[in-house]
From TrEMBL:
Organism whose genome encodes this protein: Streptosporangium becharense
Keyword vocabulary terms for this entry: Hydrolase
Name listed for the protein in its UniProt record: N-methylhydantoinase A
InterPro entries, A to Z: ACX-like_C, ATPase_NBD, Hydant_A_N, Hydantoinase_A, Oxoprolinase-like
Low complexity bias spans: 271-308
Region (Disordered), start-end ranges: 260-308
CC terms in the record's Gene Ontology section: cytosol
PANTHER family in the cross-refs: 5-OXOPROLINASE RELATED, HYPOTHETICAL 5-OXOPROLINASE (EUROFUNG)-RELATED
């Protein structure tokens, strides 16, 4: 039976969808406008659209009229994987309300004190005002009881104060509550009892406890991370419940149609499909609630591993991308929603890593250019760099996440004039609605996309003609801005793109030079709808050896969703200068038991479980740690020496010095970590046949690079492996455009990637 997997990445402007045929490896991609008011609408429309396109490609049809609803192929879907920005957007837009906090008696000002760091350095300290805390002081309750740093109880848990705190939140209608007690990373007993009290006294509440979210020391970061988890939990539960319900309705309709066909009544099957469509439309209003976790389980259960099909249960296995580079079933992810805050960008980095490694580039910079922002990351030896020092907006989040730097330099970034009279670009964006001037939806400000359209570097339409662009509106906007600046329209448009390119290059320097890496050692993979547009300038600015533009670059993040293993991270703080093999074995054993239980719930057999160990170490007296991988197997003295050696090497690489042979500087162990991984079968990247090295262009268009000139326009779908295009030229495809500047070449490799270099 035919089997396909679907990846859906919801962005600020477009929802990108990819289908991979598990038998043939055939990949089908599409895009549809995002629906910010209800992202689930764009999600479902994207799923329907890509399945229709896949059905047409199999059947040879040419349009939607060739495919009826019974031919869409939902019965063949074995899994749906989703990258979402719901949690990210809530944090970036500061939509946090009615959040409560419970902490140890005497520590009610832990959020107010925070850290001594000041944005933009101490030169700003006279003018900077602390932003409002994630929970104001008047919504913080304290509870008596105390543990020491080893987890031993100093004072017993105060049940009476706990009950009073729970009732206080209930009386004020506060349903999202975070709990963080001092030293609960060493012993979660008091936090567990607090959660039990809240569940008994305030059953409508959604509770996050720090020993579940981040079992790691540093009270401020642990408190904020726990509160962020609690803040996004109701929103994520409603969203995931909504999607799971709609997917379940489709699954039930497919199952009903299958039963009708077995009984020999095809007219009933068609009716079942039609009914499913109606039910699915009705389900679009389903929002679920924080009190209905059972609805979330519609996305899959422990008995439904990723390979399970929809038949027989009416359910489609449904997973969500996590920030750490893994996925988790919808039924599980709602219990740890903070892990999804970099869902989409993480998938893009992983998809680009697989594409680059297949083409022979194991270490690359990845650049994901969208409508609102650009996300950059570094991949070393096939693995994106991870960090636990990330933040979303102004909130530190110490969960493991792919190390991504985001800058407000997307296609929708707005060009504006500062009070000093200079041209600026971003970070403010026109978004998807109203969008750039050329969208014709009421936008009033010039954007990066308008500059590309004015200069002829982007065709007068998007998505193969589905979205026509108003080039005249872009021209009028550029001319008006040029008049204010006293420049020609061409200089103004080129200046907008130059500033945007430097904004992107600064983000790349943050992820390379500031991490001790030489940017000139790494080719770059550029993807996303706007990712390839400025690659020639980035090669010049940064000295990059080359830039790789994958096929369907606008859908790389959605493709990346289908390359990701199931992954959960577990951590335990254990500060010591002399870690014994017995203590290491006990802690790693406990963490691996937790990882095994989670993988069992995800449906992976024990023999398929993979455990990746790591440790955070520092020189005694330092405030921050360096993470290094730890070998598998029973810890012994040789194991301990290997980890210490890796620490000295990594510290020297990061900071340029180390104390390997200096007995005055001992090494301190801080955190031990385990990642539990359930491997999947990754889609294969198909090879392209070789063809003509000098392809004929599909047409010509006036394009402005150094000046206006007639440039050849190539259709990427017409190119074969070995094709070489010399600039000036433009390469167009369904979801993106690659301008090839004078003095550059773009060569297609055997996997369909265009490699751009200086001629």
């Amino acid at each position: 039976m035919r089997s396909v997997r679907i990846g859906v990445d919801t962005g600020g402007t477009f929802t990108d969808v990819v289908v991979v045929d598990e038998q043939t490896g055939e990949i089908t991609t599409t895009k549809t406008p995002s629906t910010p008011a209800n992202p689930a609408d764009g999600f479902m429309e994207g799923v329907r659209k890509v399945l229709r396109k896949a059905a047409r490609s199999r059947g040879g049809g040419s349009g939607p009229q060739d495919v009826g609803p019974e031919d869409v192929g939902m019965e063949a879907v074995s899994a749906v994987v989703h990258g979402t920005t719901v949690a990210t957007n809530q944090l970036l837009e500061d939509r946090i309300a009615d959040l409560g906090f419970v902490t140890t008696e005497g520590f009610e000002f832990v959020l107010e004190i925070a850290r001594q760091s000041v944005p933009d350095g101490y030169g700003n300290s006279y003018f900077w005002v602390k932003p409002p805390r994630i929970v104001p002081v008047h919504r913080i309750r304290t509870v008596g009881g105390r543990l020491d740093h080893t987890g031993a109880e100093v004072r017993p848990f105060d049940e009476e104060q706990a009950v009073a705190a729970a009732r206080w939140f209930r009386e004020r209608g506060i349903i999202a509550i975070g709990v963080c007690f001092l030293h609960s990373y060493a012993n979660p007993a008091h936090e567990v009892r607090m959660r039990e009290v809240i569940e008994r006294e305030h059953p409508d509440a959604v509770v996050s406890i720090s020993s579940d979210v981040l079992r790691e020391y540093r009270e401020y970061e642990r408190s904020v991370t726990t509160l962020v988890d609690a803040a996004v939990k109701p929103t994520m539960r409603r969203y995931i419940a909504n999607l799971a319900e709609r997917l379940e309705v489709v699954g039930r309709a497919v199952e009903a149609a299958g039963r009708a066909e077995v009984t020999g009544r095809p007219e009933k099957a068609a009716a079942a499909h039609a009914t499913g469509s109606a039910e699915e439309a009705a389900a679009s209003g389903t929002t679920g609630s924080a009190e209905e976790p059972a609805a979330v389980g519609a996305g899959g259960t422990a008995a439904e591993p990723a390979a399970a099909g929809a038949g027989g249960s009416g359910r489609l296995p449904f997973s969500v991308m996590k920030s750490n580079g893994g996925v988790l079933s919808a039924a599980e992810v709602v219990h740890q929603p903070i892990t999804t805050v970099l869902s989409g960008p993480a998938a893009g980095a992983l998809g680009a890593a697989l594409i680059a490694a297949t083409a022979g580039h194991p270490s690359v910079i990845t650049l994901d250019g969208g409508g609102t922002s650009t996300d950059v990351a570094v991949v070393v030896d096939g693995e994106p760099s991870l960090t636990t020092e990330g933040s979303i907006g102004r909130y530190p989040c110490k969960i493991p996440m792919i190390d991504i730097v985001t800058v407000g330099a997307g296609g929708g970034s707005i060009a504006w004039i500062s009070p000093e009279g200079t041209l600026k670009v971003g970070p403010r964006s026109a978004g998807a609605d109203p969008g750039p001037l050329c969208y014709g939806r009421g936008g009033t400000e010039v954007t990066v996309t308008d500059a590309h359209v004015f200069l002829g570097r982007v065709p007068p339409h998007l998505l193969g003609g589905e979205i026509p662009l108003d080039a005249e509106a872009a021209r009028h906007g550029i001319e008006a801005l040029a008049g204010k600046l006293g420049l020609t329209p061409e200089r103004t448009a080129t200046g907008i793109l130059e500033i945007s390119a430097f904004n992107q290059s600064n983000a790349i320097r943050q992820i390379t030079v500031k991490r001790g890496l030489d940017v000139r050692d790494f080719p770059m993979v550029a993807f996303g709808g706007s990712g390839p547009l400025l690659v020639c300038r980035l090669i010049d600015i940064l000295g990059l050896p080359s830039v790789i533009v994958p096929p369907d670059p606008g859908n790389v993040s959605a493709f990346g969703l289908l390359t990701v293993d199931v992954k959960n991270d577990y951590v335990r703080t254990f500060v010591t200068r002399d870690l014994s093999p017995e203590a290491a074995a006990e802690i790693f054993g406990d963490l691996e038991e937790q990882a095994a239980a989670a993988l069992d719930r995800e449906g992976f057999p024990a023999e398929a479980h993979v455990y990746a160990r790591s440790a955070d170490l520092r020189y005694y007296g330092q405030a921050y740690e360096v993470r290094v991988p730890a070998p598998a197997g029973p810890p012994d003295e040789a194991w301990r020496a290997e980890v210490l050696d890796r620490f000295h090497i990594e510290h020297h690489k990061l900071y340029g010095y180390g104390y390997r042979d200096d007995p005055r500087h001992g090494v301190e162990w801080v955190n031990l970590r385990v990642s539990g991984i359930g491997p999947i079968t990754r889609p294969a990247v198909a090879r392209r046949p070789h063809g003509t090295g000098r392809p004929e262009p599909a047409g010509f268009r006036e394009v402005c690079y150094d000046g206006w000139g007639r440039a050849p326009v190539h259709r990427r779908a017409d190119l074969s492996a070995g094709a070489r295009i010399d600039g000036p030229a433009v390469v167009e495809e369904y979801g993106s455009t690659l301008p090839v500047h004078p003095g550059f070449t773009a060569t297609m490799d055997e996997f369909g990637n265009l490699e751009v270099r200086r001629a």
